[in-house]
Amino acid sequence: MTLMKKNPASLAFHKIPTTREEIKSTIEKSCIPSLYWILSGKAGSGKTLVMENIASAECYPLHSSRLIDKNICTQLLFESLLAKELCQQPLRFLVEDKGRKVAHLSIPDKLLGAWNKAPHFVVETPLETRVENIYQAHVAHQAEDKAQLVYLEQNQERLGRELYHKLRKLCEAATFEKDAELHKEWIRLLIIEHLDPVFEYYFQHKRASVLFSGSIDEVSLYLKNEIDILKTSAANPEKKNTSGSSKQKSQESKV
């Protein structure tokens, strides 16, 4: 199951017969932490792959960044598309942890608060694998040669002057020479000097919510097992659900 049909947001807008009040009400009724599992991990760790591995009617993948057309989507349209997704009734929504901002838009405060309190699952992937993943996803098959330079230009304030100039110099050389290894060099530097520290800063307040951490395969298997437990509990309401409790303690020391 995919999150939504591949329609531009402009077309999807006409398929959502909801008022501003209905959108707000739908979102607020969904602000319950137990409805969600949050999938976290550093850049390039493979969170999207995990979501694809376990997507089902029982575990619904909620990719907030895929709901929008960055060129035309307004906050109201974004929230209406989000409300439409929240009308699904899975056992759990699986949400990729991207923080408050989605491009130029924002996750509603109450919903973000529920997500922050929900159980978190962390995908752990070696640095070099993450470098390769980012290269394949954002460079190797990129039609526009200067797309990476544009990205750096747009984020130079966050990167800081010194790191920005280092990254730009490497990226320009890699683009000019069409050198994959040079591209991976600036991606590696970006991860180590910027992306990982930012992740650690924001994630430090969520560590108490982590139920499990592991590789792509380990997290996928764990979540599939949890879904099986929830399905059994739903079929047998009198049986107490102990989902996640058996492995939580062993994982707390790992995270």
Q: Can you characterise this structure?
A:
This protein has 255 residues and is of the alpha/beta class. Helix content is 54%, strand content 11%. It contains twelve helices and seven strands. Helix 4 links the parallel strand 2 and strand 3. Helix 2 crosses helix 4, helix 6 crosses helix 10 and helix 7 runs antiparallel to helix 9. The longest helix is centred in the C-terminal third of the chain and has 24 residues.
Helix content: 40-55%
Neighbour order of strands in the largest sheet: 2-3-1-6-7
* Secondary-structure element string: HHEHEHEEEHEHHHHHEHH
- Poorly predicted sequence stretches spanning 5 or more consecutive residues: 1-15, 245-255
Mean pLDDT: 84
Q: Structural class, from helix and strand content?
A: alpha/beta
Distance between the termini: 30 Å
Q: Number of DSSP strands?
A: 7
C-alpha Rg, in Å? 20 Å
Number of helices: 12
Biggest pleated-sheet summary? 5 strands, parallel
Please tag this protein with its features:
single chain, 255 residues, alpha/beta, two-stranded antiparallel ribbon, 12 helices, 11% strand, disordered C terminus
Write a brief caption for the model.
The protein is of the alpha/beta class. The chain is built from 12 helices and 7 strands.
Please give the structural blueprint:
Layout: H1 9-12, H2 20-29, E1 36-41, H3 47-54, E2 59-62, H4 75-86, E3 92-96, E4 101-102, E5 105-106, H5 109-117, E6 120-123, H6 127-140, H7 147-154, H8 156-159, H9 161-177, H10 180-203, E7 210-214, H11 216-235, H12 245-252
Parallel strand pairs: 1-3, 1-6, 2-3, 6-7
Antiparallel strand pairs: 4-5
Helix pairs in contact: 2-4, 3-11, 6-10, 7-9, 9-10
